Amino acid sequence: MDRISELPKEILHRILYFLSQKDAVRTSVLSKSWRYIWCTRPNLDFSHKSFKGDKTKFLSVVDKTLQHYCNQRLCLEEFRLCMLGDDSADQESVLFFDKWIPLLTSMGVKDFQLSIIAEQSVRGIIDLHVVLKAESLTLLWLYNCNLGQNIPENIPFVRLQELQLCNVLIKNEIVDKIISSCPLLTTMLFLDCEGLKTIKKIRPHWFSRGSWNKERKLKELGEFVYKIEKMRESGN
Amino acid sequence: MAAETGTPTTLTLKSNDDELFSVAESAAILSVTIRNMVEDGCAGGVIPLDNVDGKTLASVITYMNGISAIPADEEKKKSYRDKFLSDKDFETLADMVLAANYLNMSCLMDAVSAKIAQVMEKKSVGWVRRKFGIENDYTPEEEAAVKEEHKWTFEGVETDDDN
């Protein structure tokens, strides 16, 4: 047998770890010994952009794969999902999120990265508050989405490191809650978030953890608050 | 251990083809396998590494010395790793990934795995087969069936023609 196919499965998994879902799945065609290597690797990385098919098909591939991992009790450590396009935040995908988010929690996923980049036209129509229940999130990027009006009792993002919200409808109280319950946050970006007036709960202990540069970050937050205030003054 | 005596300790590693190598303990303990031996006090004499040949072990030790000389600076470590692996052919990379796995060196394991993955990235099945000498043992019907099952993965892949 050739050298690469002879490598132990755990090494092949590590190699496939660095490939997109598409490249990893395609290795199943290489030869019989490669047939099922991809579908036991400990990470999944789905991007609607590289999928190129229609969204219903994309959602069904993600769902089928996730279900396979769950049914076979396979170890899944990382799950990355990137949805984008005019219909990425429609009712159909929200139904899948409703199913996947508890599933990922029950499967013990440690690193969940979610990007939902919707077209501006759909903003506000679909309530994505289910995202606020995703326990293992380490990265959350939302563009043109609506996180709903209900303020959840707990935000379970104990692992969240990076948060980017652009043109997201979100209650100020939810942002305050996210900030006060995410000790590992190192990167935060808010752009054009209607409903977000100020960040109140800047906790000193929050800056001493992780890699925060206290002064710099405080300054950035200060500027952010300033921008928001400025916007309100000018009547926007 | 070195930290207790205050003098740098040197370990002797033996490859499976009986070559002996001296390496500073501080560099060698990048390998969790070796670190465990040191911590258990089993690293006094010669440490036999039955799964690594001399050529590969020499290379791994170069890496251990190089990376441990860089202070905690992830960017510099990354650029060292990139440079270290840049001239290695696939046979060498395969030896190194096996050694890294055996020695439990996650940083080297990841760097080599990523490097191998990079070769496969966005490439067609035919190209990857040729590159790695993988023999296609599917019948045409079987291959067509597997392709059909994962049709979505065949769009936007580089064609075979350029290689």
Automatic annotation (TrEMBL), chain A:
Domain of life: Eukaryota
Location of the F-box domain: 1-37
CDD domains (UniProt xref): F-box_AtFBL13-like
InterPro entries on file: F-box-like_dom_sf, F-box_AtFBL13-like, F-box_dom, LRR_FXL15/At3g58940/PEG3-like
Pfam families xref list: F-box, LRR_At5g56370
Name used for this protein in its record: F-box domain-containing protein
Automatic annotation (TrEMBL), chain B:
UniProt keyword terms in alphabetical order: Ubl conjugation pathway
GO cellular component: cytoplasm; nucleus
Molecular-function GO term, any one: cullin family protein binding
Pfam family, one: Skp1
Chain ranges of the SKP1 component POZ domain: 11-65
Signal peptide residue numbers: none
GO biological process: jasmonic acid mediated signaling pathway; protein ubiquitination; SCF-dependent proteasomal ubiquitin-dependent protein catabolic process
Keyword Ribosomal protein carried by entry: no
Positions of the SKP1 component dimerisation domain: 108-152
Statement: the UniProt record of this protein carries the keyword Disulfide bond: no
InterPro entries: SKP1, SKP1-like, SKP1-like_dim_sf, SKP1/BTB/POZ_sf, Skp1_comp_dimer, Skp1_comp_POZ
Known pathway: Protein modification; protein ubiquitination
Subunit structure and binding partners: Part of a SCF (SKP1-cullin-F-box) protein ligase complex.
Family named by the database record: Belongs to the SKP1 family.
Task of the protein: Involved in ubiquitination and subsequent proteasomal degradation of target proteins. Together with CUL1, RBX1 and a F-box protein, it forms a SCF E3 ubiquitin ligase complex. The functional specificity of this complex depends on the type of F-box protein. In the SCF complex, it serves as an adapter that links the F-box protein to CUL1.
Name the UniProt record assigns to this protein: SKP1-like protein
